[in-house]
Amino acid sequence: MSTSSELDVSFAGDDLVLRLASLAYLARFSIVSRVHTRSDLRLYFSWCTERELLPLAVTRTEVEHYSLWMRETRHFKPATIARRLAVVAGFYRTCVIDGLLDHSPAEYVRRPRVSNESPTLGLSHLQFEALLVASRDSDNPPDFALVAARTPRPAHQRGMPL
User: Fold this and answer.
1) What is the DSSP string of 71-99?
2) What is the pLDDT along the chain (162 residues), one digit of tens a residue?
């Protein structure tokens, strides 16, 4: 069941059409995805407001400026910029589907290249801790022994200099 904060679109301001369009777009997502998508959309609307732009009246050039702002002013990484632009493009695509716009101003906006390969090698410390806890609590005693035996030791315990 959705809570009111998950579907809060007050960041869209007083424009009823913009609020309804935002609500329609956010309603498409699961609860977890909705939280992140809402944050990305809120940032974009805030950027528009600071420049006195109406989100439902922007041009492709203005969306390109948003991308540039994220890169040069906010120093976001390419993956973050690509994700935030995907949210903006998805919002406008929904507006076109719903008949609010004739075309999407984000349709031909170039997004940064992002590798499909994760830069993360292995598990994060939180993921590894969760694995250890799950294996320790397992009904199968060898699970913990197997995970513990595969745990890398710090360099100084492996005979390497500090």
Assistant:
1) HHTS---HHHHHHHHHHHHHHHHHHHHTT
2) 445 566 677 787 788 999 999 999 999 998 888 889 999 999 999 999 999 999 999 999 999 999 999 999 999 999 999 999 999 999 999 999 999 999 999 999 998 888 776 666 666 667 777 777 777 787 877 776 666 666 665 544 545 555
Q: How far apart are CA 27 and CA 127, in angstroms?
A: 30
Exposed e or buried b per residue across 18-33, where buried means at least 16 C-beta atoms within 10 angstroms of its C-beta: beebbebbbeebeeee
In the numeric block, the tokens 């993956």 are attached to: 79
Residue linked to tokens 């528009």: 48
Q: Which long-range contacts (CB under 8 A, 24 or more apart) does 11-20 make?
A: 11/38, 11/41, 11/42, 11/45, 11/46, 12/45, 12/55, 13/45, 13/49, 15/54, 15/56, 17/56, 17/100, 18/45, 18/54, 18/55, 18/56
- Output DSSP code: residue 160: -
pTM of the model: 0.69
Give how far the C-alpha of residue 100 lies from the chain's centroid of Cα atoms, to the nearest Å. Answer: 25
Cβ(100)–Cβ(115) below 8 Å: no
